[in-house]
Amino acid sequence: MPAKSFIHIMGTGAYIPAKVLTNHDLVKMVDTSDEWITTRTGIKERHVAARDEASSDLAAQAARRALDNAGVRADAIELLIVATATPDMFFPSTACFVQKALGIKEAVSFDVSAACSGFLYALETAKALMESGSYKLALVIGAEKLSSITNWEDRNTCVLFGDGAGAAVLQKRQTPGGILSTYLRSDANHTDILNVPGGGSRAPATKAAIHMDGKEVFKLAVHKMISAAEQALKRAGKKDSDLALLIPHQANLRIIEAIAQRVHIPRDRVFVNVDKYGNMSAATTIVALDEARRQGRVRKGDLVELIAFGAGLTWGAAVIQF
Ligand code: ACO
Predict the structure, then answer these.
(1) 249 given a catalytic annotation
(2) Number of H helices, E strands in the chain
(3) 200, 272, 278, 291: which has the highest count of C-beta atoms within 10 A?
(4) 69: annotated active-site residue
(5) What is the rounded CA–CA span in Å between residue 310 and residue 217?
(6) Reported pTM
(7) Which residues does residue 20 pair with via DSSP β-bridges, in sequence order?
């Protein structure tokens, strides 16, 4: 019988585009205020990619930093998965563009679509393929250029989103630890409360923009992320008090605070950076994990849980031992 293998995160990296859009900038674009955005969402500013920067450009930069952090050469990567709701184009996949940018001659590259839960969906997919297949090294990326599908005249949504990418290098090892458990779910009864209705085969369009029932999304986000947090901990045989850090999807500070209260985790063990970046969809949890590691908030042996929620509805969690 082959020895049991474990999937470890060996390195992380993030790339946030340079241009900053503050709440004060948005006041000049729509009927809103810094006070409204801050009290309702916790967001102070977000970053917006340049016109000629696509999701794969952000992803490739994040990937380079993750490879560097892991001490792994790009051409050693055998599996490359990009989670994105804003692919460069319908096809080729954004993952293939990243493969090209990194100069990887041959790999298995594809995209995963699960909106804001995308990184966790990609992580579980990579883990399962690595455990059952022959892949030893993988790149898992969350990358979004949400500014490309934002209606900049709709104050209900345009204040919420930002652009960015995060990447993780995964390695199959014999050493126990790494991704201890994952938990994923989707409920397709709510496809109407958060979507981009135009631009696909149902309604081809030249203009595609995010549509959202914010209140419904808020309630379900809290409920589903708490459930995911509990289920993944249970599967890993751990308790919330074992967590060194909880990294929730960064959509709204009030959602994060509601979750923190329910899972009984002290506020200083809940990671928050939504104030700086807004909601970067599939990129949020991995960008946050990278920042936490670089700030020294994840030490060897620490237990970290990522939780996310997005359109679909989709939601999930992963418990990782570093
Ligand atoms: N500035 C000023 N006023 C605004 C703005 C704005 N930017 N946006 C909306 N409003 C107004 C609305 O028009 C409405 O006015 P009305 O009552 O006269 O019609 C009013 O504010 C709504 O206010 P509230 O009900 O207090 O808004 P709420 O507290 O529900 O906050 C928010 C709205 C921030 C969108 C909240 O519902 C939310 O965060 N929901 C979750 C959103 C989310 O997480 N989305 C991402 C999901 S993940 C993914 O897959 C993309």
Answers:
(1) yes
(2) 10, 13
(3) 278
(4) no
(5) 9
(6) 0.91
(7) 47
How far does residue 214's CA lie from ligand 1's centre (Å)?
A: 5
Give the list of residues 6+ apart from residue 133 with CB closer than 8 angstroms, or none. none
Dihedral angle sign, alpha carbons of residues 218, 28, 16, 143? positive
Please pick, among 249, 252, 264, 273, the residue that the annotation labels catalytic: 249
Give the CA distances from residue 169 to residues 35, 50, 96, 143, 211, in Å, rounded to whole numbers and listed in that order: 39, 26, 17, 15, 33
Token duo for residue 234: 């249970």
Q: Which residues line ligand 1 (CB under 6 A)?
A: 32, 36-37, 40-41, 115-116, 155-156, 159-160, 194, 212, 214-215, 217-218, 221, 251-252, 255, 279, 281, 310-311
- The arithmetic mean of pLDDT across residues 286-311, rounded, is 97
Write down all domains in the chain, each with its CATH number in brackets: 6-176 (3.40.47.10), 179-321 (3.40.47.10)
Note the pLDDT tens digit of each residue in 121-159: 999 999 999 999 889 999 999 999 999 999 999 999 999
The mean pLDDT value for 13-22 works out to: 98
Cβ proximity of 140 and 167 under 8 Å: yes
Distance CA 220, CA 202 (A): 26
In this prediction, residue 1 has a pLDDT band, given cuts at 50, 70 and 90, of: low
pLDDT, tens digit, 9 for 90 and up, residues 195-250: 998 888 888 766 778 999 999 999 999 999 999 999 999 999 999 999 999 999 99
What would the two tokens of residue 205 be? 């369009």
The stretch 60-75 carries a mean pLDDT of 98
